[in-house]
Amino acid sequence: MKTMTAQDFEKITIGQTLPALTKHVTVEQIRQYAEASGDRNPIHLDESFARSAGLPGIIAHGMLTMAFANQMVTDWLGDRSLLKRLQGRFAGMVLPGDDVTCSGSVASKNDETRRIVINLVVTNQRGERVVNKGVAEAEFPPQRSDTHAA
Taking the complete model, does pTM exceed 0.70, yes or no? Predict the structure, then answer.
């Protein structure tokens, strides 16, 4: 098992890029997400229904795609509790067989509040954005002082 180490707030820089995360989306993964989330909308599970609704076939849940973005950010942070907000706008469908790549970069850093803002983008294998206007915010605990009061 890989041990994650928490990011050092002082070493984070504006413009710093996060390691990208690519996920291959499968029908089984979509089915498992439907079970875990309780979202059993037939556009995610029934090929015939999805086509009758004008879709090319079943599509992945938007929140499954956001979960991938969440994983990228929290893997980089090294401590899931640091993530305080994650949002994005769904811009395209994710289909079984798609490879989605999550990427991000540090947009701002506030030394007083110890908060960072990360801009996120999720694209498919054709370079089309499936999530845009993605933003994550993380807050780091106060820096511990190594000095002791006399």
Answer: yes
**Helices (H), strands (E): how many in the chain?**
3, 5
- Which domains does the chain show, CATH number per domain? 11-25+61-139 (3.10.129.10)
Nearest to 115 by CA among 25, 7, 34: 7
Return the closest-CA partner of residue 92 out of 37, 55, 48, 47: 55
What one-character-per-residue DSSP string does 24-60 give? E--HHHHHHHHHHH----GGGT-HHHHHHTT-SS---
Task: Cite the DSSP H helix spans in the chain.
Answer: 27-37, 47-52, 62-77
Helix axes 62-77, 27-37, angle to 10 degrees: 90
User: 103-146, pLDDT tens digit by residue?
Assistant: 999 999 999 999 999 999 999 999 999 999 999 999 999 987 65
CB 64 within 8 A of CB 34: no
Buried b / exposed e over 72-96, threshold 16 CB at 10 Å, is: bbbebbeeeebbeebebebbbbbbb
Burial status of residue 112 (CB atoms within 10 A of its CB: 0-12, 13-18, 19 or more): exposed
